[in-house]
Write a structure and sequence with these properties.
With 411 residues, the chain is mainly alpha-helical. It contains 16 helices and 2 strands. It has a two-stranded antiparallel ribbon.
Length: 411
């Protein structure tokens, strides 16, 4: 028997498959180790977008950003990510995947180091935008997982990889708060830069080469990408729902550290524990997936948007009472659950439109809703300064309520 000569050789296992006529054949499938590596890579990379979210009260004064503009840290990171979805992700249909991924992830290292070393607000904001831009590597990894998987395992493999991405989003805030509370906020970015360097080395020797069969030029891909929102009403509607939901999500999680430190006297470690409790909302994703498979996506969408509005009602009650931190944590869980469920329902509907265009459909969808998230975080500083926590909660409840009204009108 021939032994594997590279790590990429052992990344796949041979599985016996039974065809409809009863004959058997051998098909290559990613090993469980490879699927775990892809999932872990997604989680580690996507966390870069969210590390700054619970730290703006520390970063802002340290780099000379006032309270009115500190939330731009989160905004520019998300806008950079949205730009990457439109400008870099389409390259996955043209450039060999391992090369594209290692270059994109490697480009995040100087951006993370610049953020950690910044003593000027302009430099930090520029670094934040570049961190967001290069973090779109996660949206190159997920399609790669789908391309490497055989048909009968594709859903399960992509689902496992997406689970890693979701955990990265939900755990990034508590991890950042724990590190910042013990070693300072700059160490968060230095540690992430080191993690990205290790990840590039691992993926370079582990990932198989996958060369897409390009049928269009880069300009042609961009033209088709930009036309999708105008040509696809369902995509446009679903992106609007999720933009409102994610705007509310960013509004809450960017503002709540300010409330916890100011009204409840929390330290960074306390904020980390609070954010960790909010991660319980992740349980909504698999439940939403089952509901969507049972054709319950439409009522599920209405319930998800309603739950986001209800979360802000609970958050307003808790914040105004000044002592109900458990209710505030419950609001965070309900909010996360509603946003994650709506994302699953929306992706399920969009992926059914055109299987041969899923990457581009997903890129446009995510770019639009991340723009909504950027808008939500940008509003935190002026709204919180002028109207306090109640203003945040009123705006947060309004966004999903408007989306729900639009959803009910278009059904």
């Amino acid at each position: 028997m021939n032994t594997p000569r590279t790590l990429a050789d052992i990344a796949f296992v041979m599985q016996v498959t039974l065809s409809p006529d009863g004959s058997t054949g051998m098909v290559s499938a990613p090993s469980s180790a490879m699927v775990f590596l892809l999932a872990a890579s997604c989680g580690v990379i996507v966390a870069n977008i969210y590390y700054a979210q619970p730290l703006i009260a520390l970063i802002g004064p340290d780099v000379g950003l006032g309270r009115h503009v500190a939330s731009l840290i989160v905004t520019l990171t998300q806008l950079g990510y949205a730009a990457g979805l439109l400008l870099l992700v389409p390259l996955g249909d043209m450039v060999e995947s391992r090369r594209l991924l290692t270059i994109t992830i490697g480009a995040s290292i100087p951006a993370l180091l610049a953020a950690g070393l910044a003593h000027n607000g302009t430099i930090f904001l520029a670094a934040a935008a570049l961190i967001g831009l290069t973090s779109v590597a996660v949206q190159m990894l997920v399609p790669l997982a789908a391309n490497l998987a055989p048909d009968h395992l594709r859903g399960r493999i992509v689902g496992n990889v997406m689970a890693g991405l979701l955990l990265g989003i939900l755990l990034s805030r508590p991890v950042a708060s724990f590190i910042a509370g013990s070693f300072g906020w700059r160490v968060v970015f230095f540690a992430s830069a080191a993690a990205m360097a290790i990840l590039v080395a691992v993926l370079r020797v582990t990932l198989p080469r996958y060369q897409p069969a390009a049928s269009q030029t880069y300009a042609g891909l961009l033209r088709s990408l930009l036309a999708l929102p105008f040509n696809t009403p369902l995509l446009r509607r679903r992106a609007a729902y999720q933009a409102a939901a994610f705007g509310a999500f960013s509004l809450f999680w960017t503002a709540v550290p300010l409330l916890l430190t100011g009204n409840f006297g929390f330290t960074q470690r306390g904020i980390a524990v609070f954010a960790l409790v909010g991660a319980a909302g992740a349980v909504a994703a698999p439940i939403a997936g089952r509901l969507a498979d049972n054709e319950l996506g439409k009522p599920g969408t209405a319930i998800a948007l309603l739950s986001i509005a209800l979360a802000f009602a609970l958050a307003a009650w808790s914040g105004l009472s000044g002592h109900s931190v458990l209710i505030l944590a419950g609001a965070g869980v309900l909010l996360d659950a509603g946003v994650q469920a709506n994302l699953v329902f929306s992706q399920r509907a969009i992926y059914a439109l055109a299987p041969d265009m899923r990457s581009r459909l997903n890129g446009v969808f995510m770019a639009i809703f991340f723009t909504g998230g950027a808008a939500g975080s940008a509003l935190v500083s002026p709204v919180f300064v002028h109207y306090g926590w109640l203003g945040i909660c009123i705006l947060g409840a309004t966004l999903p309520s408007v989306a729900l009204a639009y959803f009910l009108k278009t059904q």
